[in-house]
Amino acid sequence: MQTQRCATCGQDWWDSHVCPKQTLKNGQTLADWTAAANKLHAAMPAVRKALDDLDGKTKAREDAATLDAVRQAVLGYYAALDARKHGGVAQDEAFRAVEKALGMHWVQGASISGKTPNVRAKRPDAAEKE
Ligand SMILES: [Zn+2]
């Protein structure tokens, strides 16, 4: 088979040749660009892990904020009792505050339908809180 030699890189070829020494539009050679792309590709698992870690931390912060809001609701109930306010009303207010903190609300029939549309997929963000 008749082979040809690349004048740029010296590689022998017979059907087609993508020269690794060719200069790209940005001034890099194809080989440089490929090496950079491979480096980036190799870094992806670390980037993905960092993003997962960040996501976990974000969730932990949200969970802490939810727990704090629930705790505040219960403390508000105790304060209402100490202030001799109506216990039933105070309890209802506290329960509403807990629902809000958890992003839940009653949807009639949801608990017996097997579906749970009364649970928000995501906690309301800080802007939504009052
Ligand atoms: Zn070549």
Strand content: under 5%
- How is the main sheet built? 2 strands, antiparallel
Shape: rod-shaped
Structural class: mainly alpha
Query: Which hetero ligands occur in this complex?
Result: zinc ion
Helical content stands at 55-70%
Count structural domains: 1
Uncertain spans: 126-130
For the largest beta sheet, what order do the strands appear in spatially?
A: 1-2
What does this 3D model show about the protein?
By secondary structure, this protein is mostly helical. It has one domain (16-128). 56% of the residues lie in helices and 3% in strands. It contains three helices and two strands, in the order E-E-H-H-H. It has helices at residues 30-82, 87-102, 110-113, and strands at 4-5, 12-13. It has a two-stranded antiparallel sheet. Residues 126-130 have low confidence and may be disordered. It binds zinc ion. The site of zinc ion (ZN) has 7 residues, from loops.
Please tag this protein with its features.
single chain, 130 residues, mainly alpha, two-stranded antiparallel ribbon, 2 strands, 56% helix, 3% strand, rod-shaped, disordered C terminus, binds zinc ion
Briefly say what this structure is.
The chain is mainly α and 130 residues long. The protein has helices spanning 30-82, 87-102, 110-113; strands at residues 4-5, 12-13.
Could you outline the blueprint of secondary structure elements for this entry?
Layout: E1 4-5, E2 12-13, H1 30-82, H2 87-102, H3 110-113
Antiparallel strand pairs: 1-2
Helix pairs in contact: 1-2
The chain binds zinc ion.
